[in-house]
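Instructor's aside before we start: the two examples that follow are unrelated to each other. I chose them only because their records fit on one page, so don't look for a connection. First example below.
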Amino acid sequence: MKKNNPDNQDVISDDNEEIQCVAKRDPNFMLSLARGLEVLDAFTPQRQRLTISQLSQKTHISRAAVRRCLYTLATLGMVHSPDGRSYELLPRVLTVGHAYLAGTPLAKVAQTALDNLSKSLNHSCSVATLDGDNVLYIARTAVDNLMSIDIGRGSRLPAWATSMGRVLLSALPEAELEIYLERAKLMRYTQHTVSTVAQLRNEIALARRQGYAINDQQLEIGLRSVAVPMLARGGKVVAAMNVGVPASEVSVAQIREHILPPLRRAAAELSMSL
């Protein structure tokens, strides 16, 4: 959302519409804290270094407010500017989510299950939950790093682009899914990546019908993955579990025949403990 300044230059309004709405109706809402968290949330594995202008565009928060947020975060040791122009996160920012990732019962039991599954299959395994428009990795056992970015506990990726994300999206009520699809920002990671909302909707519908999702080099060339849902008591989908394999060694047919059955068993056993 933009407004004109006295010099007739477009600038981004002080806050995005969601923050504005909450701040107006709730006197207990701390606007400055919300801005700071929005700024932190703008950093991704794909965009690890961002300028004030880029952060302002991504968050829809004014550059002046972004600058103040970065100054405060830098003072707290959570971000720094290696070149005096762009900013990147520092390890201390992990303390914000470490207590959840280390202490949540799901993460604890999931890690043990992943260790056992990974040992039997000799492939990397992960568990993730839906976190806004992204998947949040809460447990992971890595065998081979098949991705150009380092994925670990606490990593986040766009839900639409991952096998776990599509499984989780397939469990959303239809109205919530449509809202997600309306705001999804699709981008081509590889030549195999779905490029339209219609294609994505079909992929999600397929995951719903099959009870699993296969991602065939849509996120990274050389990487195939398969994901299944994890259910809490009452049948609600609370997380997804996946296995990643090298495309050069494991075909899609082999995934269905050899990887999917033990993955389903592991997810079902873990679901029983939730």
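Example two begins here.
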Amino acid sequence: MANSIDKAELKALYQHRWQPNLKIPLFYGIWIGLGIIAWHAPHWAIVWLCYLAMGYMQMGIVTFMHDCTHSVLFKAKWKNWAFGVFTMIPLVISFTAFKEDHLLHHRFNRSAKDPDAFTMGKRGIGDHILFYAYAVIGVVLTAVQFVIIFPIQKLRGAKALAHWSEIALHAVVTVSIFEWASSQGIAAEVFALWFWPLIFFGFFNSIRFVAEHYGTPWNAGQLAGTRTIISNPMNSWFWNNINYHIGHHVYPAVPWYNLQKLHVLMLPEINRQNAIVDKSYCAVFFDAMINGPESLKRNIVRNGKRNAATAGPDAPSASNGTSVNDESV
């Protein structure tokens, strides 16, 4: 990709600032506060609304952890590791496994070696089952992938030890909490307060995950193979600009609080490469649910049609790419 951003402007975007990370205790405070409200709520509707909101907040908290995988949430690497491990405790999976998978995803984005590219296949029965199962019970499949499958396949030596140590830590914390809860006669209530927000988090995570890359050109690089979703200011704020995903993939060392500025600077290159910018997570997700799992042939045809629909008579051609600044796909 031709670097169309001035080096001085890009250097400024790489700079760390501590003030934006004050959102971290704020988010944990909101999450805990919602749990307290749910615990004491007089009506079931309030309880379930709190569970839903807690899952949404967990999605925001996980986007902080996501920056830790690139060692950019904090300046010190050990702080990124410590916060990453801490954040993952309620989510079952290990930070080590997630980080290693995520870095491979960045390295091989939208290619046969991308560990996250399960939406691409031959549209067989197994592809359809996996695709729609992820949409419904993504949190379960994610746990299986990151607790068992990926670590056994990819992690060796110190990384494998770190992963299984984290899983052991999760087990100790979980057993300790539920033994205490059982002694107090509140085990069922504690389980509900953990489990149902986690299920809602999994659904939000599935929407985000599918929307970031589904339907983008296959094996076309970081920029063309990623989708930015403008979404809305509130969602962008709570999910820490993860929706500006093209910029993150091209410049993963830019902290979350500078991604919106990065998007503005990248717009000329995004338009030049005819990359995908959509407005709505839900629109992209529902489109994916209607069209089902991908195949290479369908991907080429789909992007060819999109190119023809969006390119003007004098517009440069883009290989399998698409630019949609005002269209929800």
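Residues 314-329 have pLDDT under 50 and may be disordered.
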